[in-house]
Write a structure and sequence with these properties.
heterodimer, A: MetI-like fold, 5-stranded antiparallel sheet, 13 helices, 12% strand, elongated, B: mainly alpha, MetI-like fold, 2 domains
Amino acid sequence: MIASSRSPLVWVVHISVILLVALWTLPTAGLLISSLRDKDQLAVSGWWTALSTSSQNLTGRAASPEAQVERDGKFVIAGKLLEGGDSKVSAFGFRPLQPTAFEAGALADIGDGQTLTVKDDGSYEIVSPARMEGTRGQRIFYTAAIPPRFTFDNYREVMRAAGIGSSFINSLTVAIPATVIPILVAAFAAYALAWMKFPGRAILIAVVVGLLVVPLQMSLIPLLKLYNGVGAFFGVSAKTYVGIWLAHMGFGLPLAIYLLRNYMAGLPREIMESARVDGASDFDIFIKIILPLSFPALASFSIFQFLWTWNDLLVAMVFLGTGNDELVLTGRLVNLLGSRGGNWEILTASAFITIIVPLIVFFTLQRYLVRGLLAGSVKGG
Amino acid sequence: MQQLIFAIATMAAGVLGCAAYFFGTNWILDKLFPSKGLTGPVASRNLRITNAIRPWLFLGPALLSLTIYLIYPVIASVWLSLHDRAGENFVGLNNFIWMFNDGEFRQSIYNNFLWLLVVPAAATFFGLIIAALTDRIWWGNIAKTLIFMPMAISFVGASVIWKFIYDYRAEGTAQIGLLNAVVVYFGGTPEAWVTLPFWNNFFLMVILIWIQTGFAMVILSAALRGIPEETIEAAVIDGANGLQIFFKIMIPQMWGTIAVVWTTITILVLKVFDIVLAMTNGQWQSQVLANLMFDWMFRGGGDFGRGAAIAVIIMVLVIPIMIWNIRNAAKEMEGH
C-alpha cells in the first residue's frame, strides 16, 4: 500500500513472507510426512528425503540347506532377499565386518569351494560341490536402494496398540460437555453484567477481569484437596469426568463472561428499550433478543473453550485418572514420549492424531476465532 | 463409545439443568411478585423487587462456580503455603525460606526470567513484522492463516513436533532431525540440543514463540488496519520512507495494543508447564516454576505446602499485570 507494486522492495516482502511461512509450517509438515513413511525408512533418513530412494544396509539369511537342490552335479540354494518392490541391491557380503565386500552380481568365495552370488534384483544363489550340512541358512549382508514407501501402517499401529484410539474417545468425552455446559451459565451472567442495574456491578466486572489472569496453578492444590474430600465423603473416586467438566467450566468462565459481556454491551441500546416499552421483562429480552444476536460471540467462546479443553494437559493430569478409559490424548502423548521416545513412527502418528481435530476446527471456524481474540484483547488497550 | 454416550447424555442433562434453573427461578419470581396486569403501588413495588433480585438469579451459577474454582482456591493456596506438607500444622514462612535456599527453585526462577525476557519480546516482534509484511501482499491472508495455525496445536503436540526437529543421532550417521541435518550440512557437529544446559531453555522457548506469534500477529494486524489513513498519507506527503512511516507513525499509534499482546503472552509464559514437562521434565537445568510446582504437588506423595508456596510466587508475579488490566477495563467502562 505504501511501496508501489513495481518496486523491487515488493519482491523482498514476498520472499521474506515466503521464508517466514516456511519456517512456521515446515515443523508440522515434517511431522505429517514422517507419520506416513515406512517406519524403517523413517528411522534412517530425514523426512525431507522422503521422495528420494534411500540406501539401507540390511541383513538377510539364505534358505536353510534343507532347501538345496541338485543341479548338474552341484548343490544349489536359491532364493530372493527383497520382497517385491523396485528395490535394488548394490553390494553384498557374508562377513559382518565386510558387509559390502562384493558388488551385486559378483561371485564370492565363502569357503569349502562354495560360492555365493547376489544379483541386483535381490536373488541369490549358493553353489556347492558337495551336499551342504546344517539347518541354518547362510547370513547375507547387503546394501539395497529402497524406493520411497508411504503407508498408513503407523496409524493402524497407534490406534490399536498404543491406546490412541481409546484416548481419542476420552478427549472427546472431556471436551464436548466442558465446552457446551458453561455457555448458558456465562451468557446469563454476561447479560446481567452488561445490561442490568444493580449495586456492585462494577466490582463484579473488575473481579472477572482480575480472574482472567489467575494462574491455574493457584487452584490445583486446594481443588485437589476439595475433590478428595468430596470423593471420600460420598465414597466415590475423586477423579471423575463430572469433576473435570466442572473444573473446566470454572476455569473457562472468566473469559466466557468477559467476551460475552463486551459483545453484549456493544449491542444497540434502542433494541432493548423498545422491547421494554412493549412490556418485555429482562428474561424475555435476553432469551428472545440478546441470545440470538450474540451468536458470533458464543461461537468464538465455544471455539476457545473447545481448543483449550482438548489441548489441556495440566487439568486432566490432576483431576482425571490415568486408566485406559480416562487418559486423554495429551496425557497419552506425554507417556509415549517417555516410554517410546525413540519410536518416531509411533510418536509422529500419535501426535498427528492429537492435533488433527483442533486443526479442523481451526481451519473451518478461523473467522470466529480471530473475532474472539480481537474482542478479548484489543479492548483492553 | 459407551462413555461418549454418557458424556453426551450428561451434557444434555447439564444444559437442560441450566435451562431449567434459569426458567424455573424466573417463573417463581414472576409468580411471587407479579407485576403484569396489576396497576398502582403494588405493581411498582413488585417490579422494583423483581428488578433487584433478577440480576442475582442470572449471576448465581456463574458466581458459585467462580467462587469454588477460582476465588476460594486462591485464598486456600495462600493459607496452605503457610502450612506443612499435609496442610495441618502452621509453619509460618518456612516454605518460602526453604524455597529461596533451594537450588532447583532458584534455577526455576532464573529460567522463568529468561523466558519472560525472550518469549513475549520475540513473539511480539515476529507478530509485528509478519503483520506489517502480509498487509502489503495479495496472498497475505493465506500466509497469516498458516502462521496462525500453530495456535490450534496443543503444547504437547507442539513439543513432539519440535522434539523431532531437535532429534539427535550420533555423528557420522544420517540425521533425521532437521536442525542437526542443517548443522551437519554446513559442516558442524550434531548436538543433543535439549540436553545442553542454559541453551536448552532457548530451544524450548522456540516452541512457545512458534505457537504465540500467530496470536500476536492477528491482534497487531487488526491494530495496523485501525491506524487512520490520514496520518500515513500526511507522512508520505512529507517525504517519509517506508521504514520511517513504520517506526515513527505506525508503531507509536500501536503502543497500547503492543502492551496488551506483551502482557497476555507474559501471563502465558508464567504458566508454561506442558512444554517443559514433555521436552525435558526439568532435567538439564531447564526447570520452570509451573513444572516445579506440579512436581512438588505429587513428589513423595505430595507436598502441598511447598507446592502452594510456589503457586503463590507465580501469582505474585502475575498481580501487577492483573492490576493493570483491571485499571484499563475500568477506564474503558467509564467511556461507555
